[in-house]
Amino acid sequence: MVPTTIHLMRHGEVHNPAGVLYGRLPGYHLSERGRAMADMVAEHLSGAASAPRRDITVVVASPLQRAQETATPIAAAFGVELRTDPRLIEAGNHFEGKTFGVGDGSLRHPEHWPYLRNPFRPSWGEPYREQADRMLAAVDAARELARGHEAVLVSHQLPVWVTRLAVEKRHLWHDPRRRQCSLASLTTLRFEDDRLVGLGYSEPAASLLPGAATVAGA
């Protein structure tokens, strides 16, 4: 049996002073802390931070700027090409570009309320099942490229989380507050040939999380 490991990584902290749900909007880059997170994960994976060096031969990122910037130091640390896969992109969301909340946010406007009618699909954006399916297709493609080695796929919180729920055979609707997918975290899938045999979660940049800014669906 051939072992292959896929690390699903959430990007680092984003510069977002307006506090909007930026979704797929262009131009949202990593903050200074976010760049430090990306560097810290690269050091962790490459063995420069006293952890064992990982056998990474493939690095792939969502086309969005924050994911590309997060993946860049990892690809550099292993001397591999940074690939892009559009299937790793953030989930589509009706509230993209808006603040989301009851006070001064979108929820105070009745025209947005119909988008909240079905949290199980969800009605405000790309269905959970579609997200999981495209992410799993990206995992399969990376697994073929890295067969016998390891790959890092840099994506976004919600797509990574629904992928984990899917492989664990749990229902995909969930409480966003309970996602185990912090900034710059790694959700690790271990395969033997084509069979998933293990799943792990780690936070190599945990020391930089206190005080970091997050936005739902980021």
Could you list some keywords that capture this structure?
Rossmann fold; alpha/beta; six-stranded mixed β-sheet; 6 strands; 218 residues; 17% strand; 27% helix; globular
What amount of the residues lies in strands?
A: 15-25%
Total number of helical segments? 4
CATH superfamily: Phosphoglycerate mutase-like
CATH class: Alpha Beta
**Compute the gyration radius: what is it?**
17 Å
The unreliable regions are none
Gross morphology is: globular
The level of helicity is 25-40%
The helix-and-strand class reads alpha/beta
Counted beta strands: 6
N-to-C CA distance: 36 Å
Mean pLDDT value: 89
- What's the story with the biggest beta sheet? 6 strands, mixed
Q: Could you name the CATH topology? A: Rossmann fold
Biggest sheet, spatial arrangement of strands:
3-2-4-1-5-6
